[in-house]
Amino acid sequence: MSTLEIKNLHIEIEGKEILKGVNLTLNSGEIHAIMGPNGTGKSTLAAAIMGNPAYEITQGQISLDGQDVLAMEVDERARAGLFLAVQYPSEIPGITNATFMRAAINARRDEDHQMGIPEFIQKLDQKMALLDMPESMATRYLNEGFSGGEKKRNEILQCLMIEPAFAILDEIDSGLDIDALKMVAKGVNAMRGSEFSSLIITHYQRLLNYIQPDIVHIMMDGKIVMTGGPELAQRLEAEGYKEISKELGFDLDSLHA
């Protein structure tokens, strides 16, 4: 079993503390969801796990199977099995989707086990069919001219192709219509299994109607303040953040003032 463990993580950006002691453990085979109001640190956590240099880690640890993740460069984290689907994927002219994904796959393999072109094309065709993506997407430049929905679906395609051990999906549902949302969920559900774990960051319970998490966390004021099963997301949808914040002694208005 693989384990991604976060202990007492504190993070600042431009001198402002965003995360104030996050503790979280993900084991392989588990799907976790983190929910919370804007500005509570959800995306900061995702960026820190993958090594965004804009975020200063002032205290705490992140480990992957006992290895110090914070001591790794970004590419080393990816090779170790971490993957981040970002909110706003970058457009990269001149590099096709297919070229990028094959390079990413082979970067995680030794020289004797590189994925050849026939094997890659067969796998790519299979995964694109699963996501109902046209074949032309493979030869388009990475995210260039893609709609918001196409970019999000493309992030899931990359995840399906690369097969990371831990996938962090940062608001993968934002801006999606119901059909695109269902397709993204179909891709995530296809990856579920004993060798895969995902941390899904979302504002809305609707995504979790299609990807049922094993564990749901609520984050407020830079900390995980409540943890439960799928029913916690349903309660949040029914009551809203304000009611739960009152129960926990938080004043949302003052937190975002």
Automatic annotation (TrEMBL):
Annotated signal peptide: none
Extract one GO molecular function annotation from the record.
ATP binding
Which intervals of the chain form a coiled coil? none
Classify the source by domain of life.
Bacteria
Task: Note the Gene3D superfamilies from the entry.
Answer: P-loop containing nucleotide triphosphate hydrolases (3.40.50.300)
Please report the stretch or stretches of sequence annotated as the ABC transporter domain: 4-246
Record keywords: ATP-binding, Nucleotide-binding
Q: Identify the CDD domains for this entry.
A: ABC_FeS_Assembly (cd03217)
Keyword Nucleotide-binding belongs to the record: yes
| Keyword ATP-binding belongs to the record | yes
| Protein family per UniProt | Belongs to the ABC transporter superfamily. Ycf16 family.
Question: Sorted alphabetically, which PANTHER family does this protein's record hold?
Answer: ABC TRANSPORTER I FAMILY MEMBER 6, CHLOROPLASTIC
Record protein name field: FeS assembly ATPase SufC
Species of provenance = Eremococcus coleocola ACS-139-V-Col8
According to the entry, what is the taxonomic lineage of the organism? Bacteria, Bacillati, Bacillota, Bacilli, Lactobacillales
